Structure to design on (459 residues):
């Protein structure tokens, strides 16, 4: 008896469909028959996205809000772009449609609504009616579009991310954090050289964040070690992740190190992101950071310069010490906007035995040397290389060739290179009937943005 595709056992369909990442492909599966629709539609609407390049969705946003039975399956919604150039009546109709759609998302756990001027009070009030909502990422520049006082009514969030908060939002932030402090585990504040977020503000938030696991402060030049110290000293169990980027040049890493040691603040730390100012005394900074991380069970290390320049050079001894302390655990290593020697890079690749993701910056004429370093990493999954300087049209045309040249020398474990390319390995047979694989490059299909492009780092 000949079996067709639709004869696949039902218990295998969820496993197969979990490997389908493009919404278009999931849509096709929904149209096969009722059984396929039942399984595929849950995955199609589980994560709803609207990014700036989704021009069709921005022009017809009602496409993802119309089917009530479908949006009940939505767990994650990301509205990174939202149509604003509409007539008053059309915009009001759209806003009403969106609020009704959000109320139908009874299983919604996470919402990101980040376009400046697109978030309104009606949207926030609708989100408050989502009983499962635990994560909220919003544009904090209210500009009169929404009432900041509504935010204090979100009292059961585990993750809050505020982008470019206004003075009015900052004013209600202490009462908001106080309301949700018992459940809050992750706080991110993203600014662009804003003077509104200060040590005094962080000190006022600290008593309500004793259960915090992850903290990221980005682009806040009025924040020094003093404000971060207060959060760490009141934290109960120690952080698992921290990001300190674009803070005050007066941030004293030596004092910060002392406070962390006193409170054993990094005893659970698995992830850290640090920005290096070009004026910073690198030798002192490196010694402080090495000591700071000496007791942390570190798995992810991201270090980058606030100004992209090859002039920022951290001594090889720093990288060697980090690898010696953490190489058996490090899964992601990101060194960006600064120079690293080929010797240090090879040491990272060869001695970090479980390294899966590697992001580095280099010059194009060093590409062959960099590739030889990559080849020493036995479990590498994703690679991203930034080149110093602007990329011209000729270089863009050669990037795919460069990427393929890198992949051919890398372990067979590599599945992604760059931001837009994934690696497939075709199985072929030679004249002796021996099987071998050949790497090929195809488009990156997953709608999730690769991690290294989620945030424009603060200067």
């Amino acid at each position: 008896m000949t079996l067709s595709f639709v004869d696949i056992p039902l218990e295998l369909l969820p496993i197969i469909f979990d490997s389908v990442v493009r919404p278009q492909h999931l849509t096709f599966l929904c149209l096969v028959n009722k059984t396929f629709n039942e399984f595929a539609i849950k995955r199609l609407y589980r994560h709803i996205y609207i990014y700036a390049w989704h021009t069709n969705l921005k022009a017809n946003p009602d496409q993802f809000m119309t089917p009530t039975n479908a949006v009940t399956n939505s767990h994650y919604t990301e509205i990174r772009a939202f149509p604003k150039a509409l007539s008053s009546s059309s915009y009001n109709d759209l806003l009403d449609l969106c609020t009704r759609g959000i109320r139908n998302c009874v299983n919604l756990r996470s919402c990101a609504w980040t376009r400046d001027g697109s978030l309104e009070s009606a949207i926030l009030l609708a989100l408050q009616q989502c009983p499962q909502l635990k994560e909220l990422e919003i544009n904090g520049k209210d500009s009169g579009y929404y009432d900041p006082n509504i935010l204090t009514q979100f009292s059961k969030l585990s993750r809050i991310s505020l982008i470019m908060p206004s003075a009015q939002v900052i004013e209600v932030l202490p009462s908001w954090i106080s309301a949700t402090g018992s459940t809050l585990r992750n706080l991110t504040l993203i600014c662009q050289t804003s003077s509104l977020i200060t040590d005094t503000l962080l000190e006022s938030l600290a008593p309500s964040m004793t259960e915090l696991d992850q903290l990221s402060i980005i682009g806040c030049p009025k924040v020094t070690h003093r404000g971060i110290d207060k959060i760490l000293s009141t934290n109960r169990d120690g952080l698992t992740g921290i990001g300190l980027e674009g803070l005050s040049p007066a941030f004293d890493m030596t004092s910060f190190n002392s406070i962390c040691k006193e409170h054993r603040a990094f005893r659970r730390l698995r992830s850290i992101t640090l920005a290096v100012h070009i004026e910073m005394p690198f030798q002192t900074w490196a010694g402080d950071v090495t000591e700071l991380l000496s007791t942390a069970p570190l798995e992810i290390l991201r270090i980058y310069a606030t100004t992209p320049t090859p002039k920022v050079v951290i001594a090889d001894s720093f990288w060697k010490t980090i690898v010696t302390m953490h190489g058996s655990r490090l899964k992601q290593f990101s060194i960006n906007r600064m120079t690293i020697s080929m010797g240090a890079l090879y040491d990272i690749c060869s001695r970090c035995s479980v390294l899966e993701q590697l992001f580095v910056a280099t010059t194009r004429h060093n590409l062959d040397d960099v590739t030889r370093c990559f080849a020493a990493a036995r479990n590498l999954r994703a690679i991203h290389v930034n080149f110093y300087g602007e990329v011209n049209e000729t270089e863009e045309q050669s990037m795919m060739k460069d990427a393929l040249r890198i992949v051919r020398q890398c372990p067979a474990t590599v599945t992604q290179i760059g931001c837009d390319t994934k690696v497939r390995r075709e199985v072929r047979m030679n004249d002796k009937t021996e099987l071998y694989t050949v790497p090929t490059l195809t488009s990156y299909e997953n709608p999730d943005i690769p991690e290294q492009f989620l945030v424009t780092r603060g200067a």
Remarks:
- The longest strand covers residues 421-429.
- Confidence is low (pLDDT under 50) at residues 419-429, 454-459.
